[in-house]
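task queued by scheduler; priority normal; single chain, no ligands, no partner chains; default sampling; output format set to structure tokens
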Amino acid sequence: MIDPTMNNLPISAYLAGVAAQMLNPPVWAQWDSTTRCTLASQITFCLALGMLNNRVLNNMMFLLQRMTNILVVPAANREQNPHSAFCANTIEGVQSTHLLSLTCLMWILRGETGMSDDFKYPKPQRLPLLSSYIPLPDGGRLAFSPVSEMQIAASWGIEGFGLAPSWSSWLRNQTQTHVTNMTSGEWVGHSYNTMRGPFEQSTSTHNVHFLCRPDPNQQNRLLLSSEGCVDNQGPFRLDGHIHTETGAVTLEKHWDTLTPWTNPLRLRGALTPLGMGGDWEFLESPNFPIGFWWLFKKEWL
């Protein structure tokens, strides 16, 4: 079990290597899709929470490269891959992909890339998790053995994650709780643009207040909107939807004033236990993500 209130969460540094291997489909082909997605969501949650608290940086450049490679593959093609742990439209599959996106963004903003550490991040102790103890094995006791610097045998340590049978139930309940509380409080956050040139690479966002209403055309989906949001480029609005069972989110971002640096964006992601986040792209360039985004409650700081 993991206690998020601890000052030093016992997260294994090898989790970054394991997550990188999860993006290598042949390594995970021996397990059925349900097992793959469950393991993916467990490991990426541990990695994201560890990055938030401890700055786990091992193997992160390699993981970031693999994550970027899979994101630039159109979703339709990704879902045709029967061996991917990050392709399923289940809650575990959706959460895995975007928890890993949050991990990559945290590493970029506060890791080895020289970015300033002036950004504010949620404190694990203030996250509204459903219980003091998350139904996962102690990450510090997982016996991962490196085959080489960048390769981890997937079978090692899997038994440990299998000891948490209530994980999927916890994740579903956690997602439902976040969906229910989406309209309360202010959302703030960060985004990062990987493009070079006149674009600001990192921006901070605040004053996001969501309104939700049922989608009359699709069950298990809420329509989202927020006006008066602000980032480094100026005021903007968000419009989109969230799937209430998986937490999958799609938003469009439109600034009030159109300039060469405020072209409309599409934000894809999920409402995870650590907040809402994923990757983004220009509306005019679909299936070409060039950055990451993250929104979380201001009260979690």
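post-processing summary
- The chain is about 30% helix and 25% strand.
- Confidence is low (pLDDT under 50) at residues 4-10, 112-116, 138-160.
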